[in-house]
Amino acid sequence: MNEFAVSVKDLTRTFGDFTAVDHISFNVARGEIFGFLGANGAGKTTTIRMLCGLLMPSSGMARVAGLDVYSAYEQIKQRIGYMSQKFSLYEDLTVRENIEFYGGIYGLNRRQIRQKTAELVQYLGLEKQVDQLTRSLPLGWKQRMALSAAILHDPDIIFLDEPTSGVDPVSRRNFWLLIYELADRGKTIFVTTHYMDEAEYCHRLSIMKDGRIVELDEPRRLKERYGRETMQEVFMEIVNRKGEQ
Amino acid sequence: MAAIEVEMLRKQYGNLLAVDNISFEVSPGEIVGLIGPDGAGKTSTMRMIVTLLPPSGGQIHFQGKDALRDMSLVRANIGYMPQRFSLYQDLTVEQNLRFFGDLFDIPPGEQKKQMEKLYAFSRLGPFKQRLAAQLSGGMKQKLALSCMLMHHPRVIVLDEPTFGVDPVSRHEFWEILHELRKEGVAILVSTAYMDEAMQCDRVGLMYKGRMLAMDTPQKLLSTFPGELVRLPVRQPEKEYAWLCEKLGDDRVQLFGDGLHIKLDDALGRQALMDVLADRPGTTGALQQIKPGLEDLFLYLLEEQHE
What we know:
- The complex is a heterodimer.
- By secondary structure, chain A is α/β, with parallel strands linked by helices.
- Chain A has helices at 44-51, 73-79, 95-105, 110-124, 139-150, 169-184, 196-199, 219-226, 231-243, and strands at 6-15, 18-28, 33-38, 59-64, 67-68, 80-84, 157-161, 188-192, 204-209, 212-217.
- In chain A, strand 4 and strand 5 (67-68) form a beta hairpin.
- In chain A, helix 3 (95-105) crosses helix 4 (110-124) and helix 5 (139-150) runs parallel beside helix 6 (169-184).
- Chain A is globular.
- Chain B has 2 domains: 4-221, Rossmann fold (3-Layer(aba) Sandwich); 225-290.
- Chain B has helices at residues 42-49, 71-77, 93-103, 108-122, 137-148, 167-182, 194-197, 217-222, 236-247, 269-276, 293-305; strands spanning 4-13, 16-26, 31-35, 57-62, 65-66, 78-81, 155-159, 186-190, 202-207, 210-215, 227-231, 252-255, 258-263, 287-289.
- In chain B, the strands form 3 sheets. Chain B has a 6-stranded mixed sheet with strand order 6-7-8-3-9-10, with helices on both faces.
- In chain B, helix 3 (93-103) runs parallel beside helix 5 and helix 4 (108-122) runs antiparallel to helix 5.
- Chain B starts with a strand and ends with a helix.
- At the A-B interface, helix 6, helix 7 and helix 9 of A face helix 5, helix 6, helix 9, strand 12 and helix 11 of B.
């Protein structure tokens, strides 16, 4: 079966007379790290909410893990993981309690939860902190833990909405190593970021502007095409130029 | 006279030394940046300077006066933008500005003048009737900055003001900071973006409460030892793990455009070529590059771990 992880055609969402997402089309292959860029307010979050089954499109087609967002939005939620800059971790629960809580939410049984907890704690190197309040962890660790919590149910596709905002360069690198590892295991990664050096880690990038996708290509090819050294410069040129119509 | 002068400043929380005897100054018309990992002590330092957090030791002078004795002087004359600035979401842009003007007892005529100037600065003029809740992330940050400029502070302290803001809006935000610098405002700002740190007059790198280095970006960069080469890679995580094993992980860093490898007396270019000989097609791609602030940052942190 050669189905795309995410497949979108002419996807549109309006709010009153405002068109937040305007006929966008793209496909994301399995195991791909797909960067979803754009200025604040370009329509990224609205798109992600539609793909996660949280918001109905106004028109167009979208399939996630082969499932139709109009009819199968409940099934989609079991096949995807979602993590955003505003972590979903409970600060006043311990690391262990957070994992148990999310395991429960995702419908794992007691034995599975115990097993997953042990696996995760070892994987993240949190043996010493497992019974500490999540609040006391450094931000970089919380981030990795939030990602782990978002994939407890072993989803095929992982949506990361600005996962590294405000995180220092060292923690960001560790986080990206984790992302690469997941992609290596065949997970599809759909990620938004405002760090243009991170954009360069992605296999392919799309850039949104005013509800439309204005560029979609590999970072290397975008840089070549625009004759620029960095994605930061490419991004500035695209968003500024196309905004001056 | 320095706008802010910090001497042997210290903050202790129980057993944790959050700020460990740091000293620096910020002059009028100067942008001083603070970078460092989470928990380095940047926010504690800023909160002490704006008198919201009592120091455990050391001195702070604000425009030559003892900030710890004359807190009301500091508060009336400083602008502070905390990490999570709370705009009133259910007030419009204009109402938010007026609210902050009123808080600082700015007369209405004066407020009006300052608002016009800030609208021009921030390009928020066309949105003055819009609710703050309905602004984009970048516009919210510009409004937050404008609110804290309503009382004409000559010294401003900004704690990661561009958190979660896209590159274009960040650029606009920094244009405003450069404008304020020209007017002689003293600016202390923390950031996780190295391109912003490069725009500062001086940058301090904090780690575990200490100031590891503080200087102009150019001078800081010149302290990077040895040379740096870039190796473009196809599978970054695999090549990274492989090279770390071969060379030690203090030499190799993962970047979006490839791996950055530090060369020095202990590992010369030829030695690296020999290692890479196992992997056909890699050696030809090696390029010498100039270290950036992020390379230096990572190097200094690695050094601390040793």
